[in-house]
Specification:
Length: 498
């Protein structure tokens, strides 16, 4: 899919937020059912957050790998169908909450189940499944899989501590100790590879199903990788790290709408000179892997490719930092020369300079427009939102539209209502209709906005670490009445694909 297609409408819902009995949204039947509901609503773009394995804090933007899949999203019911788990075994997950993800309760139980399924794979898996696994190994083992599995097992054996706090022989990746570890842990290594196979095998089926239904999958690629990741451990030359593996500077953004102190992300900065010398080969590999999973890819924090906020590694906040030059045209030219015209969307929110906009325009990459940021201006003109963008009511980082509106002052609410020509009771749908009315090729709202939910359904609050990434939709929320209501809005806007 590209933005050259007809106008489309979509929904943002992370996989973890899907309904279901087993403690977290999964990439099995509930995901298929959500696509079915989207078709009935005439929504044809499903946007979600990064799919990598998460660590402390559970943020999908701090993944343990830029290439691996989050094993917590694997559908356990499918593993039952494959004869790798018993129905009675997965019932332990059914005791977990269904309206939020209780990661502390989920992770140990699901990890044990996945390891059990992987243990049974050799004897119980069908011939077709085993052949598919062999193909997966041929394609991915050398590229990233083997090193990722080593990283996860070593991290586990070091009490989940960051890799720079492991025994030095493993921090420095000394060949002899690593080979000895591989021999000693060969069985555990194979099990972890099988678990990764479960994820990618199930995801490919979901993508095929979405394609047949006319639904485009819209993924998200964080600009930075986590310091505590397999990528940083294996390829530290990609980053500005000292001899001990510590970063010399970290990423973030200066004070903005979301935070008076800015946002101190803590990710190590790239050594862009190294990337340029190698023809941006690692990035080509990363983007190619993303396109194997998604039809559209959002480049998170696009402005960092033009210039990025660099903060001292020991800083307490992001206030004291400086702008440094990013890779710019050289980076995007290298991607296009190798991979062709790419279905990329630029996340160009925050402090955006004319230079950032010019970079995006030179490469024909659509940007983003977020109505919650725009309609508070009494001079807002809907015609200012052009076709070459994706228009949102709000993003996963915003409050829900209902919560956002209720937190505005009375005078600001009046300004918003004058723009939407609606009412406070249905501001969520009024803002969606406004997004649909724009010239933007794609208009998207979080599922919380379609449902009209308040602030307690907010998915993430930037700059905070508590109570994020947990919200889930309940199974009865997507009622026939709601589906018809959304479909009516889509049809009235001309964004149907039928």
């Amino acid at each position: 899919m590209t933005l050259c297609d007809a106008h489309r409408a979509g929904v943002c819902l992370h996989i973890t937020s899907l309904p279901g009995r087993f403690g977290i949204g999964e990439i099995g039947q509930q995901a298929f059912a959500f696509i079915d509901a989207m078709v009935r609503m005439d929504l044809s773009v499903w946007q979600y957050l990064p799919l990598g394995p998460t660590a402390y804090g559970n943020s999908p933007y701090q993944a343990l790998s830029a290439f691996a899949g989050n094993e917590l999203l694997i559908d356990v019911a499918d593993l039952c169908e494959e004869g790798l788990l018993g129905r009675d075994e997965i019932e332990s997950l059914a005791k977990l909450p269904r309206d939020r993800v209780d990661y502390a309760g989920l992770i140990p139980v699901k990890t044990l189940l996945l390891e059990c399924a992987a243990e049974r794979f050799e004897q119980a898996a069908s011939q077709h499944l085993r052949k598919s696994f062999d193909v997966f190994i041929d394609q991915q083992d050398v590229a990233w899989l083997h090193d990722y599995v080593l990283f996860r097992l070593l991290k586990s054996q070091h009490g989940e501590r960051p890799w720079i706090k492991w025994e030095q022989e493993y921090v420095q990746r000394d060949e002899q100790p690593l080979r000895a570890f591989e021999q000693r842990e060969s069985r555990a290594i194979r099990k972890q590879k099988i678990i990764q196979f479960f994820f990618f095998h199930q995801w490919q089926r979901l993508r095929d199903y979405a394609r047949q239904a006319g639904v485009s999958l819209f993924g998200d690629m964080p600009i930075y990788i986590a310091h505590d990741s397999a990528d940083a451990w294996v390829n530290r030359e990609l980053l500005r790290l000292d001899g001990t593996g510590k970063p010399s500077g970290v990423a973030g953004v200066p004070p903005d709408y979301f935070s008076a102190d800015g946002q101190l992300w803590g990710n190590p900065l790239y050594d862009w000179n190294y990337h340029a010398r190698t023809g941006f080969e690692w990035w080509k590999k990363r983007v190619r892997a993303a396109l194997d999973l998604h039809d559209l890819v959002r480049l998170d924090h696009f402005r960092g490719f033009e210039s990025f906020w660099a903060v001292a590694a020991d800083a307490d906040t992001a206030r004291l930092g400086c702008w440094e030059q990013g890779p710019g045209d050289a980076f995007l030219n290298a991607l296009t020369a190798s991979l062709g015209k790419l279905p990329l969307i630029a996340e160009d929110l925050g402090v955006i300079t004319p230079q950032v906009t010019a970079l995006r325009n030179r490469h024909g990459i659509p940007g983003m427009a977020v109505l919650q940021f725009m309609v508070e201006d009494p001079e807002f003109d809907v015609e200012s939102i052009l076709a070459d963008c994706v228009c949102y009511t709000g993003t996963h980082d915003n409050d829900t539209t209902m919560g956002w509106f209720q937190s505005r002052t009375k005078s600001m609410q009046k300004t918003v209502l004058s723009v939407t020509s609606g009412s406070a009771e249905v501001i969520h749908h009024d803002l969606i209709r406004l997004a649909f009315s724009t010239a933007a090729k794609i208009a998207i709202a979080p599922l919380q906005d379609y449902l009209g939910l308040a602030s307690d359904a907010r998915f993430n609050t930037p700059g905070t670490t508590a109570d994020n990434w947990q919200w889930r939709v309940t199974g009865d929320s997507l009622s026939n009445d709601l589906i018809e209501q959304v479909a009516t809005m889509v049809r009235a806007s001309g964004r149907t694909q039928g």
